[in-house]
Specification:
The protein has 280 residues and is an alpha/beta fold. It contains 8 helices and 12 strands. It has a single domain, classed as Rossmann fold (3-Layer(aba) Sandwich).
Length: 280
């Protein structure tokens, strides 16, 4: 059978029966890495708190006694290290690069850990960014990991495509916010995942509401949520709603994401734990 070229491929792996070059793009992790499950966290647009949800899911998983890691694939907009209060460089040797660890034991790697100053910009074109994501997978000595969360940049561009094609992602969580264009934006992320044949665990809505400190009433500051309607239209589950809470912001700014209690994400964390290993 003649294989399709990259130009001929429609990237719809779920509905394709050909053994084409797209399927051969999966790369092996570092020889000393044994990663059981990989969960991607993505959003259709920026500014919805995708990195926050990634961090809190990792914290919830680590608190369950699971060996947890975060691969920060948002190369030009990394924020994971600061959320956990990790600064400075990373160490490497003949065997490869070693990830940093949070106080909870969450292993992480991020482009910010490679910069002389965390405020230095990463001004790279798409191919270089995509290549660094692959290097985080192939050259980092992750060791034993039960769950790896991959924090992807917003949108459906080079990096999400690289992650879906290069890493054996077992499922994704889509993060959104209660805004007017949410339905269209969520649909784009859902459709990309389905084109790539990656299971969708569900949707998490961030900044869903503010809880009144006096009466406990939930106030939808960005308007009434349409999450249920959007999820039903896209055929995905609602995994949780994260409030807009100054305490969350304070702890993240202080590098104390590990101290945040996130009961709103327990269903999402349970969905992650129940995710079956994807057959590639």
């Amino acid at each position: 059978m003649k294989q399709k070229t990259t130009e001929e491929c429609g990237h719809n792996c779920a509905g394709c029966g050909e053994e084409c070059s797209e399927r051969s793009l999966l790369v092996s992790p570092h020889p000393q890495s044994k990663i059981k499950k990989i969960i991607g966290v993505m959003s259709g647009k920026g500014g919805v708190g995708k990195s926050l949800v990634t961090s809190l899911l990792a914290v919830e998983t680590a608190k369950q006694g699971k060996k947890t890691a975060i691969l920060d694939a948002d190369i030009t907009g990394p924020s994971i290290p600061r959320t956990f209060g990790i600064k400075g460089g990373i160490k490497g040797g003949e065997e490869g690069i070693y990830p940093r660890e949070t106080k909870l034991g969450i292993k992480l790697i991020s482009s910010n850990l490679l910069l002389p100053d965390e405020t230095d910009p990463v001004v790279w074109r798409g191919p270089m960014i995509a290549n660094m994501v692959k290097q985080f997978w192939t050259e980092v000595v992750w060791g034993e990991v039960d769950y790896m969360f991959v924090d992807m940049p917003p949108g459906t561009g080079d990096v999400p495509l690289t992650v879906f094609q290069s890493l054996p992602v077992d499922g994704i969580v889509i993060v959104t916010s209660p805004q007017e264009l949410v339905s269209m934006i969520v649909s784009k992320a859902v459709n990309m995942a389905r084109m790539m044949g990656v299971p969708i665990l569900g949707v998490v809505e961030n900044m869903s509401y503010v809880k009144c400190p006096d009466c406990g009433k939930e106030i939808p500051v960005f308007g009434e949520s349409r999450l249920e309607e959007t999820a039903a239209r896209s055929g995905v589950r609602v995994l949780g709603r994260v409030p807009l809470d100054p305490e969350i912001a304070r702890l993240c700014d202080a590098g104390r994401a590990g101290d945040i209690e996130a009961p709103w994400l327990r269903d999402a964390a349970a969905a992650v734990r129940k995710t079956p290993k994807r057959k590639i």
